[in-house]
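Support request from a user on the community tier.

User writes: "When I paste my structure tokens into the form, the page sometimes reloads and wipes my input. The last time it worked, I copied everything first. Here is what I submitted, just in case something in the input itself triggers the reload:"
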């Protein structure tokens, strides 16, 4: 499958949040969607469904669940059954429903910071408490789990741990021993693991994504795993995801709480999901090769051209996590928007203590990334 990932596509005429939130002279490298068209088999499947012309209510299709089962087995060596899958409109509403289904008033959730911002919103959405364990930054800029601190952050009321793997924003892909240690602590404390694995297909060699629920039967019975093709195949606007819940009681509780709080998976989103998992593996391999080159370009540029800026090499995702602490820029998101015409995610979006950080999206043509980096360099030199 030959795809020109270098092609520049005008996204300003497509109602794009990413491209239309800011002025036309701003290069947006913030929100996590890519500037590449979705795979041709997905587009053809959508055209075929559109030609039918009727878009009424529909049942989730067994064939979609079978596609997910096959994908998880091929890509991650994880065997799941169709009855263990619940199709759902999106991962964000799903982890709010997980919290609702697994807690009672007065309970709390545990997260790891820096954290994807919607994790912080769960307590207010579901009326829960929250505690946070920080990933620890090593000398090489990588992020590690402090298991002692993690266990210390567990409250008597903690009922759900929100895991994000591959991790957003740091790009860490956690190793089996790390995941197993986290799971053992959760099992000992009767904590349900809600594992956001939306970036699970975007992992760079030699790293390997391991679904935490695949480690053991005991862990799987206390885990709800959330996946979606939205990041891997650039389908975020089609609102399609899946929850894998092997524990029957957990699955039924999730489904019960979903009624009245969320609709079924989007009709066209399900069509796209099935086509992506059935026919687009070669496209994904080409994408990963292109993203790996962008990742290296970004990492080398930060290391060689941006004094005072530190970036760990992401093991997964198409997101870079930039530390501007030594550059003495307090809010780099605002600074580079104003002084470089580049939109990045502000670090404080991932936790108040990360105000001197920014997240950058390198899921774009290399020429766009280079232009943005040159702008950032010029603005940094002028400080």
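"...and here is what came back when it finally went through:"
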């Amino acid at each position: 499958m030959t795809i020109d990932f270098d092609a520049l596509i005008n996204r300003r005429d497509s109602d794009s949040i990413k491209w239309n939130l800011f002025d036309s002279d701003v290069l947006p490298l913030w929100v996590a969607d890519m500037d590449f068209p979705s795979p041709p088999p997905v587009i053809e499947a959508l055209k075929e469904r559109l030609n039918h012309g009727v878009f009424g209510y529909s049942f989730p299709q067994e064939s979609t669940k079978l596609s997910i089962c096959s994908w998880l087995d091929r890509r991650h060596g994880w065997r799941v059954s169709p009855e263990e899958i619940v199709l759902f409109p999106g991962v964000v509403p799903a982890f709010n429903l997980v919290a609702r289904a697994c807690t009672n008033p007065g309970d709390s959730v545990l997260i790891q910071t820096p954290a994807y911002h919607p994790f912080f919103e769960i307590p207010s959405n579901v009326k829960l408490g929250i505690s946070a364990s920080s990933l620890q930054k090593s000398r090489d800029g990588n992020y590690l789990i402090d298991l002692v601190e993690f266990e210390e952050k567990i409250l008597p009321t903690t009922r759900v741990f929100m895991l994000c793997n591959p991790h957003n924003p740091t790009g860490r892909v956690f190793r089996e021993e790390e995941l197993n240690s986290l799971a053992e602590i959760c099992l000992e404390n009767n904590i349900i693991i809600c594992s956001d694995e939306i970036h699970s297909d975007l992992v760079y060699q030699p790293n390997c994504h391991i679904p935490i629920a695949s480690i053991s039967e005991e862990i799987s019975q206390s885990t709800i795993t959330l996946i979606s093709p939205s990041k891997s195949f650039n389908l975020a606007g089609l609102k399609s995801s899946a929850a894998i819940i092997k524990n029957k009681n957990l699955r039924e509780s999730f489904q019960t709480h979903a009624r009245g709080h969320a609709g079924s998976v989007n009709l066209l989103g399900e069509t796209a999901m099935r086509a992506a998992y059935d026919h687009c593996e070669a496209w994904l391999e080409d994408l990963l090769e292109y993203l790996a080159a962008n990742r290296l370009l970004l990492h080398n540029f930060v290391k060689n051209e941006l004094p005072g800026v530190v970036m760990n090499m992401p093991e997964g995702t198409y997101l870079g996590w930039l530390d501007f602490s030594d550059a003495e820029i307090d809010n780099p998101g605002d600074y580079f928007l104003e002084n470089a015409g580049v939109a990045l995610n502000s670090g404080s979006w991932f936790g108040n203590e990360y105000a001197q950080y920014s997240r950058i999206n390198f899921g774009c043509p290399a020429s766009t990334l280079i232009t943005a980096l040159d702008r950032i360099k010029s603005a940094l030199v002028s400080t």
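Agent notes: The reload is a front-end session timeout and is unrelated to the input. The longest helix spans residues 281-305. Residues 228 and 241 are 4 Å apart (CA to CA). Escalated to web team.
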